[in-house]
Amino acid sequence: MTDDLIRRQDAIMVVHDLRLEAVGCIPESYNAGVDASASVLEMIPSVQLEPPWTPCSERLPDEKDADEYLITCKDRYGDTFVKKTMYFPEDELWWDISPSLTVTAWMPVPKPYEVDK
């Protein structure tokens, strides 16, 4: 079962529980309300909430991935942060990254938001 489907089913169950508590519906009207709520939830577009990070332990970027990346770095104190950089696969080198940092994951930089015209 996909995460998106699980989130939708969880939302349906929340609506189900709230309706029952709030109005004490009889089962027939209650089921109709849940069905209506489920129909509305199905119309909501799927949204990926988490960025598609790729752990460096799985693979590093190659030439076809992108030009710029967001990377998750860990410093020698264990602090973690995100930085924008470039990667050179032929040299297996992250641009402008201190040797004291460990790059743990990466993802292509997402396209900027554009207002619908």
Description of the molecule:
This protein has 117 residues and is of the alpha+beta class. The protein has 2 domains: 3-43; 54-108, no CATH class. The protein contains 2 helices and 5 strands. The chain has helices at 3-23, 27-43, and strands at 54-55, 68-74, 80-88, 93-94, 102-108. The chain has a 5-stranded antiparallel beta sheet with strand order 1-5-2-3-4, with no helix packed on it. Strand 2 and strand 3 (80-88) form a beta hairpin. The longest helix has 21 residues, at 3-23. It is elongated. The mean pLDDT is 78.
Brief write-up:
With 117 residues, the chain is an alpha+beta fold.
Can you lay out the helices and strands and say which pair or pack?
Elements: H1 3-23, H2 27-43, E1 54-55, E2 68-74, E3 80-88, E4 93-94, E5 102-108
Helix pairs in contact: 1-2
What is the residue-mean pLDDT, rounded to a whole number?
A: 78
Report the structural category. alpha+beta
Spans where pLDDT lies below 50 across 5 or more residues:
none
Total helical segments: 2
Distance between the termini: 37 Å
Give the neighbour order of strands across the main sheet: 1-5-2-3-4
Helical amount among residues, as a percent range?
Answer: 25-40%
The general outline is elongated
Give helix and strand order, one letter per element, not per position: HHEEEEE
Radius of gyration in whole Å, from Cα? 22 Å
The domain tally reads 2
Number of strands: 5
Major pleated sheet: 5 strands, antiparallel
The proportion of residues in beta strands is 15-25%
